[in-house]
UniProtKB/TrEMBL annotation, chains A, B:
Residue ranges of domain Pyridine nucleotide-disulphide oxidoreductase dimerisation in the record: 328-429
MF GO annotations: oxidoreductase activity
Obligatory cofactor(s): FAD
InterPro entries per the UniProt record, alphabetical: FAD-bd_OxRdtase (IPR050260), FAD/NAD-bd_sf (IPR036188), FAD/NAD-binding_dom (IPR023753), FAD/NAD-linked_Rdtase_dimer_sf (IPR016156), Pyr_nucl-diS_OxRdtase_dimer (IPR004099)
Keyword hit for Oxidoreductase: yes
Signal sequence, start to end: none
Top-level taxon: Bacteria
Protein name from the UniProt record: FAD-dependent pyridine nucleotide-disulfide oxidoreductase
Sequence similarity: Belongs to the class-III pyridine nucleotide-disulfide oxidoreductase family.
Length: 446, 446
């Protein structure tokens, strides 16, 4: 059987490896447009933070290992341009501009996502960069050194923007962040978002939310981000305003699209064409709370969906359950984590959300090193169901969030969650874990 | 209504506070034999570690607050000696040896647990101490200073023994640990137990497991713990060989006892007498996995059971679900956590356990600060059910354990657990959380 995969990142390479493990005789071909496969994209900001580290340090497995040890026909520098579903053929061009054509029995689209490019005059000029591929990272890192960047402006304030902010600050670069919409992290509970804002301010970061960006201009000494009411200067500008799914090739092939133009897939990762699957950032998913379609591109899901796609190509009938949208990020000394819905999202999905935010402590009463932990919890007034949680703190936020994530998968009520037997020792939390305290408070309002 | 409570620690004071909140007019009387209530017993080792901290620092709420602000008739120095269930009367003696007698409509026994005293000649002499009450902590802390302790022997290697070991080492005291049974932490997977052993050795702690202790002798310079095949000298000896439930008063009253002589209670915390409840370390519980009786004295359960007891006394019909035995402790730079059953316990409960142990990393590929994380996972071959997990590592073990704990409450299968949407960011773990990697490995064997 010919299993063709477009895209050699998390989902694509997971699928290729899994398919060869399942069926060693299968002809597995991967078309990757860049020259890099299997690298930790999420690790880029942390690598960029350290001038001593090589960017290639992020490569988890070399291309040759896939080829020689796993027998995957991995073709880098191969840009797939067109799928012909009737003929079951994919055509494209190599990096040397040579045309190619591959037929398939089953095709997996794992084209990932790409940074959304804000519609701002001057966005394409030198010194304005974004971060997605390893090559973007390479270029950005070289730029920092070669241009002796001392001051940078980041457009956007999402996870990647915040991680890049920290990375640049670690290199002694002064950073201003700017975006048109007011609110640092609008999905986050206001008080907790303010905690993060204070953390950024305390590290000397300029936070300018609610400023319409009109253009990026070249100046004598660098670049200037001109807003309707102010101007921010820097040696470079990084845009990090979110990502969009790499679904154009699927759309052109007549495949059904879904939320945010992601590729619509069923629980077995099949698209609207029975011979074509999609997995990773380019594809949609079902939400664990509602079983409705959602699009939340995250790395674990990409790996998991790649596996599931391969299993289904190999004749198993694997259904992936939904996703909870569990995510975590670091902002200087703070950890911020979320899972499930906030009140606004819950309301949109037809729930009657009630939420509570509490401030607890990371360690037991008077334990040395104690610091605040904030927990926001959302439940449904009608059913009593747990709908989501957010945690912010200097310690214990990142790994705590997995507990409510599991509870969402189990469709637990707040009442059930509040009775779960959590760990306690003085160095790691109060007797009542902050998550339980939040749930206890919420229970009173349900 | 007269609600009488024996014991003013976690369960007793939780119950008293909750009862007064539920029904402000209720006459709530608490008989506490010591002069301390509402203190963090688990925090004692960490307090002892620091000569500068006052032991009274561990008191979370002063007795007067309970009396004046909450209207609880809190009587310290009141030792309850006897319950007369027919007359619904409790009698006893105060610290000044004055007899007292209280009648009740409902009685809560919250007598906690006390350190098991090993049967070793010489165990009662000065300089041999154990740790349970705040007064024990007070005495131990004074002893360290007044006797200029430089070397200590700890009998036992459980949580408290290990925490005390770290506390003494923090004060520059050289520590040897000894116990008759071989194996540092016999419930823990061997390889992970060895990781903890190495950590202790690297901190200069002497670990002597599998040495029968014959007697403790006074010497010219201090004390000597004499084993059948060796001798350990110290300025003091601490025994920490586990705890036993404070169930004598219940036994004498004819109440039904349970595992390890704990007081048998139903899910509403009622004992075999319909007017008497029990909660906290003195009472048993149902295990979440089997719904069978178990006795695992832990602080969160004590608080929760105190609340539930009060709610039931106040006429609500609150049933507590089972416990998972989720626990965590710190050993120098290591965190160790567990929930549910290990293979041996699972087998005893009629399961066909399969287990896997993996070594993963605390952070993403090549992320700075990366260190090993070990995860042991147990599942049932017959049903595919998740039965338990253990995690050891320098970071991320303590809070991760709550996720499988929640999964145990939800009676998840390993297959369901493996699909849960966990958080990922490079500073906090690999893309596949170590718990998921362990579950993936286990799935292959189920």
């Amino acid at each position: 059987m010919d299993f063709l995969i477009i895209g050699g990142d998390a989902a694509g390479m997971s699928a290729a490896s899994r398919a060869k493990r399942n069926m060693p005789d299968m002809n597995v071909v991967v078309l990757e447009m860049t020259r890099d496969v299997s690298y930790s994209a999420c690790g880029m900001p942390y690598n960029i933070a350290d001038p001593e580290r090589e960017i290639d340090d992020l490569v988890v497995r070399q291309a040759d290992v896939f080829r020689e040890k796993q027998g995957i026909n991995l073709l880098t520098g191969h840009y797939a341009e067109k799928i012909s579903p009737q003929d079951k053929i994919v055509t494209g061009r190599t990096i040397q501009d040579k045309p190619f054509s591959f037929s398939y029995d089953k095709l997996l689209i794992a084209t990932g996502s790409s940074p959304a490019v804000p519609d701002i005059p001057g966005i394409s000029q030198p010194g304005v960069m974004s971060l997605k591929s390893l090559d973007d990272g390479r270029k950005l890192k070289s730029y920092l050194t070669e241009n002796n960047v001392n001051k940078a402006v980041i457009i956007g304030m999402g996870y990647i923007a915040l991680e890049m902010c920290e990375a640049l600050a670690a290199r002694g670069i002064q950073v201003d962040m700017v975006k048109p919409r007011a609110g640092l992290l609008p999905w986050m509970e206001q008080g907790m978002s303010d905690v993060i804002r204070e953390e950024l301010k305390s590290k000397g970061i300029g936070i300018y939310d609610g400023h319409k960006i009109e253009q990026i201009q070249k100046t004598d000494s660098g670049l200037s981000v001109i807003c309707s009411d102010m101007e921010l200067k820097g040696d470079m500008v990084i845009t990090a305003v979110g990502v969009k799914p790499g679904s154009k090739i699927a759309e052109d092939a007549g495949l059904k699209l879904s939320i945010g133009n992601s590729i619509a897939v069923n629980k077995q990762m099949f698209t609207s064409d029975p011979h074509i699957l999609a997995a990773g950032d380019c594809a949609d998913a079902f939400h664990i709370i509602t079983d409705q379609k959602t699009w939340i591109p995250l790395a674990l899901r990409a790996n998991r969906a790649g596996w599931a796609a391969a299993d289904n190509v190999c004749g198993q009938a694997i259904e992936l359950p939904g996703i909870a949208g569990t995510a975590v990020f670091k902002v200087f000394d703070l950890q911020a984590a979320r899972t499930g819905f906030n009140a606004k999202e819950a309301e949109k999905s037809g729930f009657e959300p009630v939420e509570v935010t509490i401030k607890s402590r990371s360690r037991a009463h008077r334990h040395p090193g104690n610091c605040p932990v904030w927990v926001q919890i959302t439940g449904d007034k009608k059913s009593g169901r747990l709908l989501g949680m957010q945690i912010v703190g200097k310690e214990g936020a990142a790994h705590r969030i997995n507990a409510p994530a599991v509870a969402l998968h189990a469709k637990m009520s707040v009442e059930q969650f509040v009775q779960t037997d959590m760990a306690y020792a003085p160095p790691f939390g109060p007797t009542w874990d902050p998550m339980l305290t939040a749930a206890n408070q919420l229970l009173k309002k349900l």
